[in-house]
Amino acid sequence: MNGPGRCPDCHRAVLWTRTLPGATTPGGKRMAVDRDPDPAGNTAVRRDGTTAWVSRRVTEQQPLMGYERLHMPHPATCPAQQQALPLDTAAPVPTAPRAPQQCVLPEGVIRLDDHRRRRT
Ligand SMILES: [Zn+2]
Known about the structure:
This protein is α+β, with helices and mostly antiparallel strands. 24% of the residues lie in helices and 26% in strands.
């Protein structure tokens, strides 16, 4: 699946992309980003040809290009996946106050990997 779709966990509107090879990742994976561009995001999304949506990590060495849009990786904002994180704790985890998205961003990488591992 590539293009507009829904998150299977929270059913929000997302955009399914194929990841491009990056400095630390081989690429070629499926990744959902939030449907609407978000300047606080860390993922550059563009259309490859006429059909495929591709995404990559924006880094200092590879800044956002004019033909790309910044999106937030969906695992960083998915409410279903936030709740799924502390699975192995017995007691219910109190709901944390909503943190600014900038604070959540670095952890998005870890969540993303967990997300991928769970799907493959
Ligand atoms: Zn979701």
